[in-house]
Automatic annotation (TrEMBL):
This is GNAT family N-acetyltransferase. Residues 5-166 form the N-acetyltransferase domain. GO terms for molecular function: acyltransferase activity, transferring groups other than amino-acyl groups. Keywords: Acyltransferase, Transferase. It comes from the Bacteria. The keyword Acyltransferase applies. It comes from Candidatus Merdimorpha stercoravium.
Length: 172
């Protein structure tokens, strides 16, 4: 049976569980270099404080719970300057939660929130080309591959291709 997936507001008590999940090289490997590794509880506290700050571009970041247990984070942020109508979604999950449909369920819940945001006219997601599982999650949620940007992402001193997806709506 598929786990019950819910989104909840981030709060300081989640710092330790977030750090525990994110301080896994296999999880961190598919994230932007802006995320430190090793990932500490202090890093998580700082992130939660940033999300909670009034006017933060990360204010639409949520904890993902699967059967009540923290599984990861999902969120969207609006672009800057003349692209303020573009929402970029992102997510990550602890390895123990991979392959169980949690990412697809959580992203679907997030997209319900995105649909009600009057500022959003376009939704996109960008992933490392080597992250086939994340690409499949996006496709299941109604995203289509729009472009492959050659050597656009850097990770551990190497360049990787980035795949850009655009949301065309929830599949019927």
């Amino acid at each position: 049976m598929a786990p019950k997936v819910e989104l909840s507001v981030l709060h300081p008590q989640l710092a330790a569980p977030i750090a525990a999940l994110l301080n896994d090289y296999r999880v961190w490997r598919s994230l932007s270099d802006i995320v430190p590794y090793p990932y500490t509880e202090k890093d998580a506290q700082d992130f939660i404080a940033c999300v909670s700050r009034e006017g933060s571009p990360l204010r639409n970041t949520f904890a993902v719970r699967a059967d009540g247990q923290l599984a990861g984070l999902v969120g969207y942020q609006l672009g800057a300057l003349n692209k303020s109508h573009i929402a970029t979604v992102g997510y990550w999950y602890g390895q123990a939660f991979w392959g169980r449909g949690i990412a697809t369920a959580a992203l679907s819940l997030l997209l319900e929130k995105v649909e009600t945001d009057p500022q959003v006219c376009r939704v996109e997601a960008c992933v490392f080309a080597f992250n086939a599982a994340s690409q499949r999650v996006l496709e299941k949620c109604g995203f289509v591959r729009e472009a492959v940007l050659k050597e656009a992402l850097s990770k551990e001193g190497k360049l990787y291709d980035e795949v850009v997806f655009r949301w065309v709506g929830t599949p019927r």
